[in-house]
Amino acid sequence: MPETAKLDAFDRALLDAVQTDNQTPARVLAERVGLSESAVLRRLRRLRGEGVIVADVAVVNPAVLGTPLTVHVLVSLERETSDLLDAFMRRLRRRPEVKAAWYVTGDTDFVLQLRLSGMDAYEAFARDVFHDDPNVRGFRTIVAMRQIVGS
Q1: Domain containing 134: what range?
Q2: In a shared domain, residues 39 and 75
């Protein structure tokens, strides 16, 4: 696990800005945070090199891709042996519907975020991933009606 980075106010301001729009030109970032353009570029390069910035991504409208339905699923397993956990995580990684997955503590073992074309696609996913896995004790489905915050 990476050590906590030493970030000053300029670094934090830059990170706030690029998390909103990572295509903002350096000259605009420089104006916003009160640094020169070259200082902004050096800091961004350092933040990437130190693993603070781990990816530059594009957020795509899921409806345009034919996956307007967001579903969150809380999954509980029967057993959590290393081999069973690894097998379940491999299955999740192979599924394009899984956009994010967390191994968590408490009554639930995994929290999944899925993007799907509709409820028929979710039913097929649930059959393949949950119903057909004897180690899945149960799952709870939360269907998102509308996104309020985030990307």
Answers
A1: 69-143
A2: no
Q: Which amino acid is at 126?
A: A
Amino acid at 41: L
Enter the pTM of the model. Answer: 0.83
- Percent helix, strand, coil in the chain, to 5, is 40, 20, 40
Q: No. of H helices and E strands in the chain?
A: 5, 4
Each as own residue / partner, the long-range contacts of residues 125-133 (CB below 8 Å, 24 or more positions apart, any chain) are: 125/95, 125/97, 129/91, 129/92, 129/95, 130/73, 130/75, 133/88, 133/91
- Structural tokens at position 144: 């998102």
Residue with tokens 């799952």, as numbered in its chain: 139
CA–CA distance, 93 with 48 (Å, rounded to integer):
25
Q: Say which amino acid occupies 26.
A: A
Domain count, the chain: 2
Shared-domain flag, residues 97 and 135: yes
pLDDT in tens, 108-146: 999 999 999 999 999 999 999 999 999 999 999 999 999
**Distant-in-sequence, close-in-space partners of 53: CB < 8 Å, separation ≥ 6:** 15, 18, 44, 47
